[in-house]
Specification:
elongated; 106 residues; mainly alpha; 73% helix; Tetracycline Repressor, domain 2
Length: 106
């Protein structure tokens, strides 16, 4: 992946991430369309492949990104909380915070 991707405005970066997550989640890797991703993200195909050399590279980036999202959730869970309902509520709030930023990630 190109470092240019990290240099993008956060809003544009999130549009690309969300569009790609949505497309891969709907269609799986083989049937996912980069054309749908660029349309949803409102970028050109050249831009997408300027940031990622291939569909596979984008997919692998998303896997790493989602592992980080899950790690953030796990880091925020109070494992000492013994009340399952409080723990579930807390997880719900954490997921809500993440979904506000990256709607397609969970």
């Amino acid at each position: 992946m190109s470092q240019k991707f990290y240099g993008l405005e956060p809003e544009k970066r999130e549009r690309i991430i969300n569009a790609a997550i949505k497309e891969f989640a709907r269609n799986g890797y083989d049937k996912a369309s980069t054309n749908e991703i660029i349309k949803e993200a409102e970028i050109s195909k050249g831009s997408l492949f300027n940031y990622f050399n291939s569909k596979k590279e984008l997919y692998l980036f998303l896997l790493e990104y989602l592992v980080e999202v899950i790690d953030k959730i796990l880091d925020e869970i109070d494992l000492n909380e013994t009340d399952i309902f409080k723990r579930l509520r807390d997880v719900g709030f954490i997921k809500f915070k993440i979904m506000k930023k990256t709607p397609s990630s969970l």
